[in-house]
UniProtKB/TrEMBL annotation:
This is Beta-alanine--pyruvate transaminase. Keywords: Aminotransferase, Pyridoxal phosphate, Pyruvate, Transferase. Pfam families: Aminotran_3. GO terms for biological process: biotin biosynthetic process. PROSITE patterns: AA_TRANSFER_CLASS_3. One of its GO terms (molecular function) is pyridoxal phosphate binding. Coiled coil: none annotated.
Amino acid sequence: MPVQTDHLWMPFTANKQFKAAPRLFVSAQGMYYTTDDGRQVLDGTAGLWCVNAGHGRETIVKAIADTAATLDYAPMFQMGHPKAFEAASKLAEITPAGMDKVFFTNSGSEAVDSALKMVLTYHRARGEAQRTKFIGRERGYHGVGFGGISVGGIGGNRKHFSANLMPGVDHLPHTLNLEHAAFSRGEPEWGAHLADNLENILTLHDPSTIAAVIVEPLAGSTGVLIPPKGYLKRLRELCDKHGLLLIFDEVITGFGRLGTPFAAQYFGVTPDLMTVAKGLNNAAVPMGAVVCKNEIYDTVINSAPQAAIEFFHGYTYSAHPLAAASACAALDLYKEEKLFERAASLSQHFEDEIHRLKGAPHVKDIRNLGLVGGVELNSRDGAVGARAYEAFLHCYHHGVLVRYTGDILAFSPPLIVSEEQITQIFAAVGEALKTIA
Ligand code: PXG
């Protein structure tokens, strides 16, 4: 029986186009989805960059099932439950030194908005309430809340809402430059100086009014923009020079995507706050978090009287028992199976295979780091995105799931992917590109 699609308004989807020919997954195991017509599709994107340990992992499934049976829900406002604290401790084990405090949310978008509020609360607690402005970056994706789209830099996500965005936000330029850095393998050599634009922006504001800078260490959603060598270190130095907090949005880069727990460790740059979600619990139940430096937590908590709520923020489902239990199980699994190390050891093969597409029809640029890759296509005249959509569709019908945004194909397989499967993903793309006009 074909599924009735009329009632659901689908997110970030061309609803009319999709409903004319729906694509449905009915189950998933390991590296594969199964479609409603019984085909196996290799997951080249870890769902939406989130199922880092692969699908249907037994210990995670069991943790969720057991928890649902024993503690379906517990309030976290003025109450608690053990798994919430355990999940925070397990997460703190793998965060950069000195970043041991965790605030749970239900998504990356909520993590970003929570981080922005946390920053404002911190500055107020330390007597710098005038620090209210944020600096994001062009092409940044920080979720879809009003805070997130305000600091974000993706035109399509902002323009309908532009009259209602948060005030006091400015943006750094993005770091993609095809003239100097096309087909870079890993981090581009060119472009560290782009961080110096922060100084230019600060001259337009009083730096003492800036609360924080927020960037994705590696920009994912916008089409995989790899930071130039030295760029993030420079950004950190400039933030320190002017007393600005630095937020890394690690919703995509967290949990082994680059072969280290977080991009912060990969690049050797420690932010003041990190936003995470997705891989936090292998995406089994909606969950996100803000991780902050101990000093931020201590300052906020110690600024309030003993019986006072220190941070007026939280969600009904903050650290929901099912989410917390699945986070504990996922974090254990990453450790037991050494999946972050596995990602690191696969990254050279991934790089070699994706760069084989150089010279394939329509390919304009190829970018990669860890187990993240992007292939940018030349757009068809007057139809941006059409080529990538057709390539995506061809891959899907030939058993490989890829992602696309505009005319950029994106790849981020689960960290359990094999070398052969990596080869298969890019071979499927190569075949697809030959068939499309
Ligand atoms: N920050 C970053 C860096 C993200 O990539 C969010 C925040 C928001 O997370 P939530 O959980 O609210 O969606 C994201 C989400 C894609 C794609 O294919 C990327 C995201 C979500 C869906 C699709 O590029 N990133």
